[in-house]
Amino acid sequence: MFTLGFFGLFGLLCLVLWIWAIVDIINSRFREDSTKIIWILLVIFLPFLGTLLHFVVGREQRL
Which of 6, 43, 13 is closest to 25 using CA atoms? Predict the structure, then answer.
């Protein structure tokens, strides 16, 4: 039987939140297009930190 364990579930949760953040950024409107590009790059190159920052700070920057 396959069990994920704590680290497997944590990794799966991080992956789901990472994908959710990218989709949320792509579907959102920002004041400037460069802000969208910066958020996408931040989330892609710093997955854990970028996703966390997007949900804490980035969602407030949307129109």
Answer: 43
Secondary structure element (H or E) that encloses residue 44, with its range: helix 33-45
Quote the CA–CA distance of 8 and 20 in Å, as a whole number. 18
Q: pTM (2 decimals)?
A: 0.80
Nearest to 34 by CA among 3, 61, 2: 61
Each domain of the chain, given as residue ranges in start order, spans: 5-61
**pLDDT for residue 1:** 47
Nearest to 59 by CA among 15, 36, 33: 36
